[in-house]
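Task card 7
Instruction: Convert sequence to structure tokens.
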Amino acid sequence: MNILLLYSDSDAFSDLCEMMQIFNVPVHAARSQAEAVSILVSRSIDAAIFTLRTLADLEFLKFLNTSYPQIKIFLFVENTLRDIISILKDGQYQVVPASCPLSEWKRSLEAIMNAQEPTADVGS
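Output:
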């Protein structure tokens, strides 16, 4: 399994990389959406992880859903954006609060990696 990680927060990136070592899966990191698209074009990606904060992030989500529907999407969201996610029920998403414990990230990723049906919300 290849994972695309689009990040802007160095601390969260370090935590995610540490967790990915547990799964022993390749992580392709991008600091921008343009860099993420370059990775998508050049590699076979199975899952994408990113934080949903802005309209540009929503556009990237839409791009992934239409251009790469086979990719499983794992979103980190701020509490105020949970309502937006509940509206976007056309796809399957794993939603985790940005401030949730590492153990919940791990549990949610395990659900994706095991191809289980993602939950609508984790950590409530």
